[in-house]
Amino acid sequence: MKYRMFFIFTLFVCILSGISHAQIIISGTIRDCEGNGIAGVELLGWPGPNPHTDSQGYYYGVVKVGQSFQPTPSKDDLVFNPEYRYYDIPLTATENFVNQDYVEYCPKKRVVIEQDLQDETVELGKNAQFKIRASNAEEYRWYHNGFTLGWTKSPTFNIRSVRIGDVGEVWVEVRGLPKTLTSRKATLQITIPSPNQKK
């Protein structure tokens, strides 16, 4: 009975040891919005060497059963959706188990502020205009002394018939991927013409 229990225990340990060393392959394709494979994408956070996509957008990586991880695709100037994918490899996965994961990560260009806001000085009663130039921007939210009217599609902000109370700061939030950017705070100043200038 003693040797039998020892044999069963040894067999159990060997099974667990075999499971812990069993490996599976996870593979898939990363495509753009048109369905074309994207080459040169690295999947960061892989438990081992990070896989890279080939010329057709195909990747594969070897992992051990029982591992959990969430790889993040990465390539300069591209943003992927979803940002990561979570994997939980069950202990019951067989050594030849292949998870064909063809999730399409749809890339978009990053939002970039190319020309920031400039300070403005205008004459009392005249109009003031602030402009920002940003590539791949979706929406803008302008602020004037802390107040905003919400999101808009316009990259310009106009203040008509400037008054003394309008003096202060103007800035804008630029919405895009992967995150919303904030411009510098530009100042608005006014000049008051002398009586001689008004004539």
Main features:
rod-shaped; 2 helices; mainly beta; three-stranded mixed sheet; 2 domains; six-stranded mixed sheet; disordered N terminus; 199 residues; 19 strands; Immunoglobulin-like; single chain
Describe the model.
The chain has 2 domains: 2-109, Immunoglobulin-like, CATH 2.60.40.1120; 112-198, Immunoglobulin-like, CATH 2.60.40.10. Helices cover 12% and strands 40% of the residues. The protein is built from 2 helices and 19 strands. It has helices at residues 2-21, 195-198; strands at 23-29, 42-44, 58-64, 68-69, 72-74, 78-79, 87-88, 98-101, 108-109, 112-115, 120-123, 128-131, 133-135, 139-144, 147-152, 156-159, 168-175, 181-182, 186-191. Strands 11, 14, 15, 17, 18 and 19 form a 6-stranded mixed beta sheet that branches. Strands 3-1-8 form a 3-stranded mixed beta sheet. Strands 2-5 form a two-stranded antiparallel sheet. The radius of gyration is 29 Å and the shape is rod-shaped. It starts with a helix and ends with a helix.
